[in-house]
Design brief:
Layout lengths: L9 H38 L5 H35 L7 H43 L1
Length: 138
């Protein structure tokens, strides 16, 4: 009788389960907070209906873009969580689900990486705009 080799032992599976559960909780909290933010921002946007069109458009765009990005991150985290939980449900065939989970995590962090780069770009552009404005006043 031959014994099967398992890439991960039960302790490893427990770590994967805990990580998947925490990622799922993180994703649900992010979805709820994005939903609440959207509702609250809708009230703010509705209250701005009498304000200029430009201010309304800027408020509307900036508010809902951030909520949509939070929702995208939450959905990617849910996907990664489900893929990671799948690792613990396979008998002896842990490598393929593990690689799926790693790919899901890679997508999640790639989105966050690009969001961070865009944020840094906006901060630099804003700083340049502030400095340009200050030097124009002098």
């Amino acid at each position: 009788m031959t014994t099967r080799e398992y890439p991960f032992n039960p302790a490893d599976h427990q770590v994967f389960e805990q990580l998947a559960r925490r990622m799922r909780i993180f994703a649900y909290v992010l979805i709820v907070s994005a939903g609440l933010s959207t509702v609250l921002n809708l009230f703010q946007v509705i209250s701005m209906l009498g304000v200029s069109t430009r201010a309304f458009a800027l408020s509307f765009g900036s508010v809902f873009i951030s909520d949509i990005l939070c929702l995208v991150i939450a959905l990617l985290a849910l996907s990664a969580s489900a893929a990671l939980a799948q690792v613990t449900r396979n008998d002896g065939n842990d490598v393929a689900p593990f690689m799926t989970a790693v790919q899901a995590l890679k997508r999640l962090f790639a989105v966050q990486y690009w969001m961070l780069l865009v944020l840094i770009l906006f901060i630099v552009l804003m700083m340049l705009g502030i400095f340009t404005f200050i030097f124009m006043l002098n």
